């Protein structure tokens, strides 16, 4: 008796149309790809006259062949393929749910980081506005001080001129 890890043969025992375990295997004669009977017949019935795997032309359902040997292999590997598919689908759904939760957490972290960046940018803008207002106030005060000093100097010069004229 030989033991086989199902993961190592899973790709070869999975239908490329329904992604389930192959059931009533049909082989496409031109390219030898395998599919579930129902899947490939429906595919061809919908006028898709090509292999879903390699796109090779498949003229009709007559190009399909039974593969009882492969059916036996699948049956030996997966004693109850339907139950196996259900378990695998449930597992895939749980993995997807976990992934969805992780994605949601990641999105929440991204939103939080974006919110923090916006807050930091707003705080920086406010700080820059305050600094600009302070700079303008200092400039205004210096301008007023300079204007007052200039007015005082003009007044002194005028007083000196008047005093000089009065002595003369």
Please explain how this structure is put together:
With 168 residues, the protein is mostly helical. The chain has helices at 6-9, 37-45, 68-77, 81-167, and strands at residues 25-28, 34-36, 64-66. It folds into 2 domains: 9-79, Zinc/RING finger domain, C3HC4 (zinc finger) (Herpes Virus-1, 2-Layer Sandwich), CATH 3.30.40.10; 81-149. It has 4 helices and 3 strands, in the order H-E-E-H-E-H-H. The N and C termini lie far apart (136 Å). The relative contact order is 0.07. The model has no long low-confidence stretch (mean pLDDT 87).
In short:
Keywords: Metal-binding, Zinc, Zinc-finger. The chain has 168 residues and is mainly alpha-helical.
Keywords:
Znf_RING_CS; metal-binding; zinc ion binding; 2 domains; Herpes Virus-1; 65% helix; three-stranded antiparallel beta sheet; 168 residues; mainly alpha
């Amino acid at each position: 008796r030989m033991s086989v890890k199902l993961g190592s043969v899973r790709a070869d025992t999975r239908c490329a149309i329904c992604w389930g375990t192959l059931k009533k295997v049909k082989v496409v004669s031109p390219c030898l790809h395998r599919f579930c009977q129902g899947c490939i017949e429906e595919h061809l019935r919908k006028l898709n006259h090509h292999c879903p795997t390699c796109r090779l032309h498949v003229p009709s359902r007559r190009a399909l062949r039974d593969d009882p040997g492969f059916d036996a292999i699948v049956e030996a590997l997966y004693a109850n393929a339907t139950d196996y598919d259900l378990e695998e689908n449930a597992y895939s759904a749980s993995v997807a749910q976990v992934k969805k939760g992780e994605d949601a957490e990641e999105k929440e972290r991204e939103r939080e980081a974006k919110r923090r960046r916006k807050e930091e940018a707003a705080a920086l803008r406010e700080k820059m506005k305050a600094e600009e207002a302070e700079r303008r106030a200092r400039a205004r005060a210096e301008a007023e001080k300079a204007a007052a000093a200039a007015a005082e100097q003009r007044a002194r010069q005028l007083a000196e001129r008047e005093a000089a004229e009065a002595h003369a």
